[in-house]
Amino acid sequence: MRGRAVTARAPEAAAPDGAPAARRLPRWGGASRSFALGALSVLVLLGIWQLVTAGGYISAIFLPSPAQVFRQARRYLSDGSLFWHVLTSGRRVLVGFALAAIVAVPLGIALGTSRTAKALFDPILSIIRPLPSLSWIPLTILWFGIDEGQKYAIVFMGTFASALLYVMESTRRVDPLLIKAAQNLGATRLDVLREVILPGSLPGIISGLKVCLALAWTCVLSAEMVAATHGLGALIWFAKDWNNMALVMVGMVSISITVLVLDSAFRLVEDKILPWERHQRRRDV
Amino acid sequence: MAAAAIVADRVTKAFEGGRRDQVVALKDLTLEVAEGEFVCLVGGSGCGKTTFLNLVAGFLAPSAGAIYLRGRAVSGIEPSAGMIFQSYALLPWKTVAGNVEFGPRMKRLPRAECRAIADRFIRMVGLSGFEHFYPGQLSGGMQQRVTLARLLAADREVFLMDEPFAALDAMTRQVMQEELIRIHEQSRKTTVFVTHNIDEALILADRIVVMSARPGRVRASIANDLPRPRHVDVQLSPRYLELKTQIWGHVEEEVRRHIEATPRAD
């Protein structure tokens, strides 16, 4: 997910002086070309996969063929159960992640702008942050049982500290000269926060939250493998118990597609709320 | 002469350094700038020109001495001084109009009035039609025009300019200088303009103050009696060359002193 932010800036950052022609390519021409290339590489991968499995080079026990996976997917799609699993996991991710973001964004801005708050919270943060979300499973089960609350708690615990850190860092990285300029124009502390620090840290906060959203998926999947009857993690674990590798792969592909869809939705939001960034990206293209 | 708009009274500013204990940027600097006067501060790098502007704007507090704006001592961010920075310092997430109306908005003027003020000054710097562009879409010269409009819209009594044209190419720079001359002749705002370009100082200033190498203080104060309104062709006059030679004499000596005083290995 982080990869998106990197590619978006690549034309500016990576274009060497010797490649002015490449930089002058029209934006959409460039984009549709990369899309075509991307689609091609996926198709080639599928082709090789089909070839080695159908040709008997790799036994179906170790790797089911794309056709088997597709059949399996159609079965689970037709009775709607695959959607149900996707929706269940998706809801857990979004609720847990939203809770983490709602707490982390304001707290992170406070920590990023106040030395006192930072000194108070930094030690706690560095204790919580290295803990993998899986290590929270026993405690959260004890506290919340095995229903939805526990899944939300796992996602929250797994993403909160990282989100907080991203917000703090982006807040702290706002150009001090801009703050100075705003103060010189008569901005109060609150004005500086609202007009300079918030918009200035927003791009960093958003790309940080994107990383955390990906993190939220790993949290929810591991939580579902341990204690759940629904959701993509549970589906994969259930399929594993029945040694149904085609179904395992249906689960895996579903995760990829869901994350891709969510990521493009995030990108649309990003273009809407960061119009100046969009212009900045276009400037050198 | 009118009352002094800016008085620096034996100002000393020392910074806590790392290995070498202290860096004294300014030492007993005394300087007066008259109401409506355009003063250029000239000197090599590291002579404390920028530090002086930061002190007047209230971003820094002097270690000793005091600075008065119209008789009132500067303490904290100074509401009557407006600053232009070399690197523009425009808010990238605001359009040209948004940046220019920032000052009026901070004064809590009504929305329509902010708009009107912004429009007026955007027109004055010749950026009509670019109101809805973001700074990132403009060239360096255009961005510096925006900072000029932003400063004018904020309606400050004293203008502080920290090498505002240093990053511009020679031609854009000349156009901007002419623009600034025109604006100054209209508004007659007290201006302190930092530069290390003597030609720029001679075109713009009423008076040129040469600063000594670190620790900075006033080495020479030279009245610039070149006729106004000034055009670039003033550079061809004998008086211009005379002044330039005189100023360069002071500057050169200070720059040499600075180079010799600076240890090689740092």
Give a description of the structure.
The complex is a heterodimer of chains A (285) and B (266). With 285 residues, chain A is mostly helical. Chain A has one domain: MetI-like fold (Orthogonal Bundle), CATH 1.10.3720.10. Chain A is built from 13 helices and no strands. In chain A, helix 4 packs across helix 12, helix 5 packs antiparallel against helix 10 and helix 5 packs across helix 11. The longest helix of chain A is centred in the last third of the chain and has 38 residues. Chain A starts with a helix and ends with a helix. Chain B is built from eight helices and ten strands. In chain B, the strands form two sheets. In chain B, strands 6-7-8-3-9-10 form a six-stranded mixed beta sheet, sandwiched between helices. Chain B has a four-stranded antiparallel beta sheet with strand order 2-1-4-5, with helices on one face. Chain B is of the alpha/beta class and 266 residues long. Helices cover 36% and strands 24% of the residues of chain B. The radius of gyration of chain B is 19 Å and the shape is globular. In chain B, helix 4 packs across helix 5. Classes of the chains: A mainly alpha (285), B alpha/beta (266). At the A-B interface, helix 9, helix 10 and helix 13 of A face strand 6 and helix 3 of B.
